Fold this sequence. Notes:
Blueprint: E1 2-5, E2 10-13, E3 16-19, E4 24-27, E5 32-37, E6 41-46, E7 51-54, E8 60-73, H1 75-87, E9 98-108, E10 113-123, E11 128-132, E12 138-139, H2 148-162, H3 164-170, H4 188-191
Antiparallel strand pairs: 1-4, 2-3, 5-6, 6-8, 7-8, 8-9, 9-10, 10-11, 10-12
Amino acid sequence: MTKILIGILAAIIFSSPFEVSAKEVEVPEDIYTWVQSTSRGNYFFNTEQMNYRVKSDGTIDLYMLNVPTICTYDDIQIQDVIQKRRWKNQSLEGYDILAGRADYLTFDLKNETVHVVKRVDLDETLTELDSDYSGEPIKFADIPEKSIACRFYRSILIWARFNTETLIARSKGKLSAADKQLNSKEYPISKITLPGDLPRND
């Protein structure tokens, strides 16, 4: 386990310093891989639970990749989430120890989209406070190249590209006869245009 200090930020309000206290959140480093930190949060993805979707016939769908992720918040982001819930008249029960969110992503490698299937607010023990299912698929090509999301999704897909055999073995299904004939360079994850890359001309 590693304790992630989300950070101590300082702002100037009417020329007076305003300090925000740091929060400590325990993120299991044997399960989650850190990708990046910003002034508002720290981004991780779950390398132990990500897997390929299994079709109804029991075969693995190499075009559909499921990835659980976590983002831990700094205090400014926490207050922003709380304020938005207050505006929407949503419950604030448990939000006094809000620490971040979990995004359950599905990458559609055929259509080159990413979909936040479920977004969950988490407390300091990484326990669910509330969930949202309103996300919609977004095309890789529509994700701004320099955005936090682009860097995050790109890192996940690169990891998946180099660990495809592990993901296949972990997925609760079997490869189709045709997919068994593929080599690693022929898997869909190896052929997609990653977020942030220019469209291919081939």
